[in-house]
Every structure is written in structure tokens, then in C-alpha cells.
Specification:
This protein is mostly beta strands. It folds into two domains: 32 residues; 347 residues, Neuraminidase, CATH 2.120.10.10. The chain contains four helices and 28 strands. The strands form seven sheets. Strands 3, 4, 26, 27 and 28 form a five-stranded antiparallel sheet that branches.
């Protein structure tokens, strides 16, 4: 591996069979003193470029639609599971909120019809997140919220073994962490378990499961009386390591996302430290994180909300090698800043720019070169909050 990299670098300095300068030889020899991790990182960075497609509407409707996750299915399609509060009166919170699904066909670049998955008909069924096991089981976490009392009736999960056609009854985990984080469930091959991250009352926790049907094992991730720790997203990234990004609920400039790390598969964690996500220490909303094992690359998604004018709110795509960002939380690389759809000059529609960007990006792989990303725009209309779903594809060249 090292010799191959040496030869590649050497050839780049050749011109018509001659070296530019004999001193280059010493430079190349010095490169061999770098660790294999550094060489792997340098090679990886030079092997890909990233671009995105234009924003397109996934669901543009009078309903308030938001907060979900993407579940890749066996046939190559991707199911979005999300919160839907119907009608013009649907809003950020409301007792009519329920769980819906619709499916994306990557080959046709087309979304299917909206279908109901679960409706309590009494509570706001919200904070919907989850993932898919290696065997195809879709696991979905959510809570039933009482808006008038601002309390949670209960925290549940359900699962499907037939691509979302039918679902189990309500399941509970019985652990202290109860509000699903914004990141997806992920698999840890080191311990052969699935994990999901949650938060409650200023604490973050991690849950473990063998197959997604029971979640009785947990560990504390972070607890800090001086910081309001809320939404969290994490990913396993090899060699017993898990990294997580946390929203600091301060909601103002100077409070970007926080980072915590585990080197023992989630049993113990570092103290939260500020990252460079979003840029310039703007406040970061709901985080999203995924690990691309083929590229040894962490992909983080985030949006700013409170610390910049509404017309400047953007989605951000950051990347990092685990080796470069573990222990260095301000070492993320911003790949793209994507201005919110309704702030663009070419936006055509009746949505006024009078609320900050909601965000809540969800991500899932389409194939080895592409990812699907879905997020939420919003404005205030007819005396309530209007929200719609947009999507784009993230492509590695």
C-alpha cells in the first residue's frame, strides 16, 4: 500500500521522463514516515469528488409534513417514514399528527402515494426515526405527545418484516432515554448489535439490540448540567469507535453542534466538545450522521436556524475521515452549503419566507455512488405553520 502511494506521488512529479529536481527524492522518502492512516486518508480524498442534484419537491401539500427517516428496501426503492399533520390546520405540534410513509423509486426519480402507518387518533405521534437491519427488518421509534400539556404519554417502537406492509404492535424499551434522536439506527459489527441514540431531560443515551425487536441494554452517552443536550445522531466507524453529534439547545450564535466519542463500542464516552458544524459557530439544528465504510468517510448533515437571518438559512454537508475527526471535533470539512429552497430567486410558489428553516435532514444510500437526502422547509400561513418535504441526491464521482 505504501509503495503504491509512493509510486503514484513520484509519477506526478515526472515530466517527459525526468524529475523536476533531485530534491523531490528526499521529499518522497520523507512521505514514507507518515502513518498508513495518513496515507489512506490522503489517497481517499483524491479518489472522489462530491456534487448534489437540484432540490425537488418530495411532498408539497397543505399538510404539515416533517421529521422522518429513510429505509432502503430489497427492491432498490427507499421508503420515507415521517410525521404528517393533515390539512391547513396541521402544524408543528397537534393531536392530529400521525405516522405516514411514501416510497421513492430512484430509477424513475419518482415518489409514490402517501399511506398511513400508525395513528393513535389521540396523541401527536412524532419524533419518528429508525433504520433497517441486515435482514430487512424496519424498526421505527417515536413518541406520543400531548401538546396542550407539553408532556409525553409514552415512547414506543414498532417494526415491520415485510417492507413496511404490516407492523408489530406497540413496543417499549423500558430504559430511561426515551425521545428518539435524529440519527438513524446503525449496525456495529464489532459487537454484532444494532444501536440507536436517544435523549431525555438533558441526557443522551445509547440503546443496543440483537435484531431490533428488543431494546433492553443501554449506556449513558452524555450528561451536562451546563449544556442542554437534545437531538443526537451517531455512527459506528470501525475499530470499536462510535462518534455522535449533539444539538446544543441554546439556540443562538456561538453554539454549534457538539461531538462525543466512544472507543469501546458505546460503553463509555468522551465529554461533549464543540465542532465546526455549522460554520462560523452558528447554531446547529437537528444533526444527521452516516458512515460510508467503502470510502472510510463520515458524512454529516446539518442546518442553521436561529443565528442567521431566515433568508440565509442553509443545509450543510460535512465530511471527515474517522481518523482525522476523532479527538479533533473542529476538523470537519464543509463540502457544500445549500441555500434553503424558499430563499432562492427561482422559487415559484406561495410560501412566504417568514420562518427559519426547519431542516431535519434524513439520508440513505441509493447505491455505492449515490445517497438520497430528504429535508423540511416551512413558513407561517393561515395562522399556522406550513411545512413541505424536499429532496436531492448526493453523488460521488
Amino acid at each position: 500500500m505504501i509503495n503504491a502511494v509512493f509510486n503514484i506521488l513520484l509519477n506526478r512529479f515526472l515530466f517527459k521522463g525526468r524529475l523536476f529536481h533531485a530534491g523531490c527524492v528526499a521529499l518522497f522518502a520523507g512521505l514514507l514516515t507518515f502513518t498508513s492512516c495518513n496515507l489512506r486518508r490522503a489517497t481517499s480524498d483524491n479518489q472522489w469528488t462530491m456534487h448534489t442534484t437540484e432540490f425537488r419537491e418530495a411532498l408539497f401539500t397543505d399538510d404539515h409534513v416533517s421529521e422522518g427517516f429513510l429505509a432502503p428496501l430489497d427492491d432498490g426503492s427507499i421508503m420515507l417514514l415521517f410525521r404528517l399533520d393533515p390539512g391547513i390546520g396541521g402544524s408543528h405540534v397537534g393531536t392530529n399528527g400521525y405516522i405516514a410513509k411514501m416510497t421513492y423509486d430512484p430509477a424513475q426519480d419518482k415518489w409514490g402515494e402517501v399511506e398511513t402507518v400508525y395513528n393513535s387518533h389521540r396523541y401527536d405521534d412524532r419524533n419518528i426515526h429508525g433504520g433497517v437491519t441486515n435482514d430487512g427488518r424496519i424498526v421505527m421509534f417515536f413518541r406520543r405527545y400531548i401538546p396542550d400539556g407539553r408532556i409525553t404519554e409514552g415512547r414506543y417502537f414498532i417494526y415491520s418484516d415485510d417492507n413496511g406492509e404490516t407492523w408489530s404492535g406497540l413496543q417499549t424499551s423500558g430504559v430511561i432515554f426515551g425521545i428518539p434522536g435524529t440519527g438513524q439506527m446503525f449496525y456495529n459489527p464489532d459487537i454484532r448489535k444494532y444501536s440507536t441514540l436517544e435523549y431525555l431531560s438533558g441526557k443522551n443515551g445509547i440503546l443496543f439490540s440483537d435484531d431490533g425487536s428488543a431494546w433492553e441494554e443501554s449506556a449513558l452517552v452524555a450528561e451536562d448540567d451546563d449544556v442542554e443536550l437534545t437531538e443526537i445522531a451517531g455512527a459506528w466507524c470501525g475499530d470499536g469507535r462510535i462518534i455522535a453529534l449533539i444539538r446544543d439547545n441554546a439556540g443562538r450564535y456561538g453554539y454549534p453542534l457538539l461531538q462525543v466519542e466512544s472507543y469501546d463500542n458505546g460503553q463509555t464516552w468522551s465529554q461533549p466538545k464543540q465542532t465546526n458544524i455549522p460554520p462560523d459557530k452558528h447554531w446547529g439544528g437537528a444533526p444527521q450522521l452516516i458512515y460510508d465504510s467503502e470510502r472510510d468517510l463520515l458524512i454529516a448533515l446539518n442546518s442553521d436556524r436561529y443565528s442567521r437571518p431566515d433568508e440565509q438559512n442553509s443545509l450543510f454537508i460535512y465530511t471527515a475521515s474517522p481518523d482525522n475527526v476523532m479527538g479533533n471535533p473542529e476538523n470537519w470539512t464543509m463540502q457544500h452549503e445549500l441555500l434553503r429552497p424558499w430563499a432562492r430567486g427561482d422559487f415559484e410558489g406561495d410560501r412566504p419566507l417568514n420562518l427559519n428553516l426547519y431542516g431535519y435532514p434524513a439520508i440513505a444510500p441509493i447505491n455505492e455512488k449515490e445517497y438520497l437526502v430528504v429535508f423540511t422547509e416551512r413558513s407561517r400561513m393561515h395562522g399556522t405553520e406550513q411545512a413541505d418535504l424536499y429532496y436531492f441526491r448526493l453523488i460521488f464521482d
